[in-house]
Amino acid sequence: MLQYEMPKVVIVQHRFVATLNRILQAIIILYFFIFAMWWEKAYQRFDRALSGVRFEVNGMVYTRILGNNKNPDIVLDSADYFIVPNEVNGFFLMTRLSTVTVQQLGECAEARDIEDARCFEDRHCRAGYIGGQSLLSPTRELPTDWMIDIDADAHGIFTGQCRKSMKTCEIFGWCPVQEDLDTLHAGSFKRNQTRHREDDTRETEFDVFEPLYGILNLTISIQNTIEFPLFKVSRYNILPWMTREYLHSCIYRPNDRRDRYCPNFRIRDVFFLAGANAHRITRHGGVIAITIDWKCDLDVSLKLCRPRYGFLHLDGKESAQFDELGPGEGWFMNFARRLGNSLPLTSGAGEPKRLLFKVNGIKFLIRVTGEAGKFNLFVFTMSFGSNLALLSLATIICDFILFHFTKERTLYTRATHDVFLESKTALAYTPKIILDSISRKKD
Q1: Bridge partner list, 286
Q2: Distance CA 136, CA 66 (A)
Q3: What does the UniProt entry say about where the protein is found (predicted)?
Q4: Quick one: 33 exposed, middle or buried, by C-beta within 10 A (0-12, 13-18, 19+)?
């Protein structure tokens, strides 16, 4: 335990081990300069970007209502198809109107796709109950395959009555309710739902709204500002050389030397670059991610700190059938607009009414990533020292080969270990003894 060790240099004339040692040292040196220093920039200190995004959608959309000969044409602008986002870095773009319902507060039959709202008698409808909490009906019957909708939500509170004509419980809420039974006809307008029928029956005739294919020609303009607080550097995706005329006319093209930095994106191109089927995603909706990536080397010119754009379709795998949705595919949302004569309930000025829209659309998510690096002496010193220590790995490998896989491994082991006792005359092993043993073996 009370020992002191000193390094000892032993020169071994072994061609294979010597060659292997030089090769390993060369590999470690190349790794240090090429990968660590040049590729990974191990001499720099890095900082993550803080960002802010602003976006707008420009253009007009024209569509027709099939089956409506009186007013078949509809023109939509950004106030119609652009839905105010709930999240910070994203927005929703309507691509198809599924259903429109004029509703007012009152009593009506619950939707037929709410399984626990089905009934035959009043006793099946418990007053105050809210449907959509069980797949079993009050009659203890399981739903058939075509009626299962695990995502269906209730539309009101049970009044305790059973609407026997509809075989569903009566509710108090916004009436009439919307239904999702006709999944293959999503994107259609139920004409009879715009008025309250006395018997609460619903017909199956549809006047189909065409998808808004005109959105393929709309443009998305994105403005992005980032800051690297550690280095007190900020950048803007509208580069200094971009003029007002250029910004009004350019469209993003990834293979063009100048237009790959243009912040205006045609939606048709976004679908193509994201790998999405334009007609399918316009019909069913979906989720598209637009990524703005900043990789900045602050040791060179700041002008080279430019954004790179990427696009990704985030939906699930597309199913083989055009009218069928795969798991996690598609996107829709509901929103309401109060009619002009609708006033708060407390005003006593008429019954509140609203327009309930169910629309398919595309949810765009704007993601910003950024990293900047700059030379730092402390980081460089630590990286240089840690990579320099890797050179000892070549010595360890060569020693292992000498001590275990060569014919003279015993002699090499003895040559590298001399033990000097505390007595001045006592020596366990000396270089002279080892050399004499080697010479006797050769003789």
Answers
A1: 362
A2: 38
A3: Endomembrane system
A4: exposed
The Cβ of residue 287 has, within 10 Å, a number of other Cβ atoms equal to 21
Q: Mean pLDDT, to the nearest integer, of 229-239?
A: 93
pLDDT tens, residue by residue, 30-53: 998 999 888 888 899 999 999 888
Question: Could you give the CA distance from residue 193 to residue 355 in angstroms, rounded to a whole number?
Answer: 11
What CATH number matches the domain at 13-43+377-406, 3.30.1050, 3.30.420, 1.10.287, 3.30.1370?
1.10.287
Quote the tokens at residue 441.
């073996």
Q: Which helix (H) or strand (E) holds 397?
A: helix 392-405
Q: What is the DSSP letter of 123?
A: G
- What's the CA gap between 167 and 122, in Å, rounded? 10
CB 324 within 8 A of CB 186: no
Calpha distance 111→171 (Å, rounded): 10
User: Which residue has tokens 């350019």?
Assistant: 250
Whether the CB-CB separation of 290 and 364 falls below 8 Å is answered with yes
For 324-340, the pLDDT digits (tens) are 666 667 787 877 777 65
Cβ contacts of residue 326 below 8 Å, gap of 6+?
315, 316, 317, 318, 319
* DSSP secondary structure letter of residue 427: B
Q: Which of 75-79, 137-141, 152-156, 182-186 has the highest mean pLDDT?
A: 152-156
Q: What is the dihedral of CA 170, 172, 173, 178, to 10 degrees?
A: 0
Closest CA to 49 of 317, 257, 293, 406: 293
Calculate ∠ Cα 416-418-422, nearest 5°.
160
